[in-house]
Write a structure and sequence with these properties.
The chain is mainly alpha-helical. It has a three-stranded antiparallel beta sheet with strand order 1-3-2. Helix 1 packs across helix 2, helix 2 runs antiparallel to helix 3 and helix 2 packs across helix 4. The radius of gyration is 52 Å and the shape is rod-shaped.
Amino acid sequence: MRHRKRSRRLVGKWEHRQALLRNLLVALFVHEKIKTTEAKAKELRRWADKMITLAKRGDLAARRQALSILPNKTVVRKLFSELKERYAYRQSGFTRIVRIGPRRGDAAMMVFIELVTDKLEHKPSAAKKKVEEEAKAEAPRAESPEQAAPPETGQEGAKGPEEEAQEAEAKPEAEQEAQPEARGEGQAEAVSSEATAVEAEGGQEAQAAREETSAEELKEKKEPEEK
C-alpha cells in the first residue's frame, strides 16, 4: 500500500523516474511549453516551482543546488537570469496546465504544461500609495519661492573677481577716513583725562580750605574760654 505518499509512481524504478522528470524539466525551461500526460505534468509542476524558487533566492548555494538537479548549465543560467526577473514579484503559480483531451490507444489524459509569461507588476498597497501622493503634493510647495530655504552663508559670501578688486581699492580710502576719527577720539580722551585731573585738584583745595576754616573756628572758641 502507498498510504501518505504524495508523489506519483509513473514508472517502475526510482532512477528511471528521476531521469524522466529531469529531462521533462529541461525541456520545459528550454521551450517553455511541452505536451505530456496529466500525471507527469502534475509531478513536473512540483519540481518546476522548486527550481524557480531557488532561482529567486539567487545565491551561490541555490545555484549549486539547481545544478545538482539540472545537469544543464545553459538552462540554469537562463533560470537565474531571465526567469528570475520574470517572476520577481510572483510568489506562486509559475506554471499552467491546460487539458487537450485523451490520447488514442490508452485514453490517457493529455495536457499542455507551460510557464506563465504574464509579467506580474508590483502594485503598492493603498497606504503606501497615499504616502507617495502626499509626498508629490508637498514637493511643489517646497520648491515655491515663498517657502524656499534661505541660501547658505557660503553662497552669500561668494563674490566674483571684479567685486574683490573693487573692495581692495576701497580699503585704503576707508582706512584714511578712519584715521581722523581715531585722532578725534584720542583728543577727546586726553581732554577728559585733564578734566578729571582738574576736578581732583579742585577737590583737594576745597578740602584744605575746609580744614583751615575749622581750625580757625576752634581757636576763636578757645580764646573766650581762656579770658
